[in-house]
# Entry
Amino acid sequence: MKEDKIQVNFNVNGKAVSVTIDPKKTLLKVLREELSLTGTKEGCGKGECGACTVIMDNKVVNSCLIPICQAEGKEVLTIEGLGTPDQPHPIQKAFVETGAVQCGFCTPGMILSAKVLLDKSPSPAPEDIKESLSGNLCRCTGYTKIFQAVQRASRNLRKRRR
# Structure
């Protein structure tokens, strides 16, 4: 029996993408296995660790929980679309400058969660930062440097906007 496939059209990092895929695949699997965007990590596979965080239509989502069909017509931003090695996004730069990257496994999800927060609230309170990042787990840093990175990015982004 032939396996059924569906066609899904969406935008990833500003580029139109069309995939013909097994409908049981998640957005995470398609990003990593079909589109070779491996910055999005698979951690728990249950939506609890945040390693698979991407931004879909300006909202933080756990891509391991999103059936690929739900990406139809959506805008998806992964860490690869945020900055470049030569021109890192200010949030990425702040993470490096504060030493918040450690092993790097959680970093893409943390950065994307911080981006959504800073897009909505350019001067977030410490409690807002903690709440915004609460869906992202880190085993290396103890979070202090991560929170400092978001605060630094907030300051730097406000300076750029002036």
Observations:
- The mean pLDDT is 95.
- Helices lie at 27-34, 90-98, 107-120, 126-132, 144-161.
